[in-house]
């Protein structure tokens, strides 16, 4: 017999919020049937309207708060919730940090692993931290607009103050928007797959204040390009690089294959832990510089290096961790799948006069196998994979080369815990508490450092 949900669409209920999901939605239960409700917090009472009924769970919309949580931040800008820019902005920052610690702890507990998770390292000023923006450009009521999509949609909400971005980046986006308006550049239309300008990307060095403007276009030709470049340069003196990326596809991917330099260098420079880094348009670079320094310092401390060790940095990006580790190690090997990032990594090694770091382009799983075959014997492997975590084959070959330690920087608690179980099967265990570091205040993302040691 088909289960019948105890609620109906459009009905109103008074509910108690008992939990907060990983996505930051409040949870209420009606006869054991869970409802997820945006902008509600544990301990609150709310009048809600059911807006979607699925087989095993539904969604509600907050109509009225009947009892407020003491962790609630009042008078937030709804656009930041609506667009998902800051899904936790209504939760006080201390409570956000606890929420992140708790999330990791719960996942380890559920998987029956006896692991302690420390309080999350937070920021003093947890807003305006992002050093990179990639903002969609669309036509709304006949006008070129920049902003962010409403959640689960491609409706653009025009926004000028992005709240969690470096305010200089916010200003630059408005300047570029106005220049594009002035020259009547046609915004991209996803449905018709026509128009010219798809996105504006901005990177700004936290210490260097060098700025890169990336114009992502559907067409090879950007009309009036010379005038546009001149006006951007004149209006934004921090700009040291203007790049055009051509994305011909009709898909959702941000960047296309070809990138053209329009002005200045092909990268900007910035510093982390006293080291200089070149960062290209399509290289990964941590978006929260202040917290990244804490994250890397934690990871490097936990590696306990004394200058005699060989270290592998898998998923190394532009070599940030590798180069920060190099002064504490005998030899460092970095691997990364994006070719441009490895080119940056090599430039970065030179810039910092570091001679004991070698970088290769490739997938971590294949390269690890090669290193294993070549008989490389690392003492420590540092990994910082994307959200999907480590490939099973990577774990296979990484544990075969038998490092004393694997230091795992994770941006996704669920794949971390999955990989922790796989590593345990290979004899790598967690002896010290896991350290979460808040790289993304106001959002639900959880970053952490975990050390695995050979039994
Ligand atoms: N440690 C770096 C980068 C971390 S982000 C830093 O902190 O800046 C993860 C990186 O892994 C990205 O640069 C991404 O391009 C890379 N990557 C993704 N899949 C990969 C794979 N299968 N093998 C190697 N690198 C990969």
Automatic annotation (TrEMBL):
The keyword Chaperone does not apply. Pfam families: TRAM, tRNA_U5-meth_tr. Its EC number is 2.1.1.190. It comes from the Bacteria. Keywords: Methyltransferase, S-adenosyl-L-methionine, Transferase. Residues 6-64 form the TRAM domain. The keyword Transferase applies. CDD domains: AdoMet_MTases. One of its GO terms (biological process) is rRNA base methylation. The active site is at residue 411. S-adenosyl-L-methionine binds at residues 286, 315, 336, 384. Belongs to the class I-like SAM-binding methyltransferase superfamily. RNA M5U methyltransferase family. This is 23S rRNA (Uracil(1939)-C(5))-methyltransferase RlmD. It comes from Apilactobacillus bombintestini. The lineage of its organism: Bacteria, Bacillati, Bacillota, Bacilli, Lactobacillales.
């Amino acid at each position: 017999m088909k289960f019948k949900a105890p609620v109906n669409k459009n009905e109103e209920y008074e509910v108690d919020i008992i939990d907060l999901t990983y996505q930051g939605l409040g949870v209420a239960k009606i006869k054991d049937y869970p409802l997820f409700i945006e902008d509600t917090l544990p301990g609150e009472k709310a009048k809600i309207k059911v807006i979607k009924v699925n087989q095993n769970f539904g969604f509600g919309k907050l109509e009225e708060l009947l009892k407020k949580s003491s962790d609630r931040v009042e008078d937030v800008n709804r656009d930041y919730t609506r667009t998902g820019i800051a899904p936790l902005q209504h939760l006080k920052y201390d409570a956000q940090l606890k929420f992140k610690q708790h999330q990791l702890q719960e996942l380890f507990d559920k998987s029956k692993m006896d692991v302690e998770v420390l309080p999350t390292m937070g920021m003093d000023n947890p807003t305006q931290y992002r050093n990179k923006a990639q903002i969609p450009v669309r036509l709304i009521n006949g006008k070129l607009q920049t902003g962010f999509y409403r959640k689960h949609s491609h409706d653009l909400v025009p926004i000028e103050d992005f709240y969690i971005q470096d305010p200089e980046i916010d200003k630059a986006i408005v300047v570029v928007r106005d220049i594009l308006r002035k020259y009547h550049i046609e915004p991209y239309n996803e449905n018709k797959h026509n128009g010219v300008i798809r996105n504006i990307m901005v990177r700004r060095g936290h210490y260097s204040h060098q700025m890169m403007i990336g114009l992502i276009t559907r067409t090879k030709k950007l009309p009036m390009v010379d005038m546009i470049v001149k006006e951007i340069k004149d209006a934004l003196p921090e700009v040291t690089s203007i790049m055009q990326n051509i994305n011909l596809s009709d898909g959702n991917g941000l960047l296309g294959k070809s990138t053209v330099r329009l002005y200045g260098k092909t990268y900007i420079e910035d510093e982390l832990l006293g080291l200089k880094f070149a960062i290209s348009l399509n290289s990964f670079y941590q978006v929260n510089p202040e917290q990244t320094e804490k994250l890397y310092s934690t990871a490097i401390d936990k590696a306990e290096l004394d200058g005699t060790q060989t270290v592998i940095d898998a998923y190394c990006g532009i070599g940030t961790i590798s180069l920060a580790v190099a002064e504490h190690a005998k030899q460092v090997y970095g691997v990364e799948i994006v070719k441009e990032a490895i080119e940056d990594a090599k430039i970065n090694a030179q810039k910092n006069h570091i001679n004991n770091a070698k970088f290769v382009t490739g997938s971590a799983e294949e390269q690890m196998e090669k290193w294993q075959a070549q008989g490389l014997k690392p003492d420590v492997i540092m990994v910082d994979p994307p959200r999907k975590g480590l490939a099973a084959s990577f774990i296979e070959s990484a544990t075969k080369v038998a490092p004393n330690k694997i230091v795992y920087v994770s941006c996704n608690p669920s794949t971390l815990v999955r990989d922790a179980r796989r590593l345990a099967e290979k004899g790598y265990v967690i002896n010290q508490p896991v350290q979460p570091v808040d790289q993304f205040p106001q959002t639900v993302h959880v970053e952490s450092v975990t050390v695995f040691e050979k039994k």
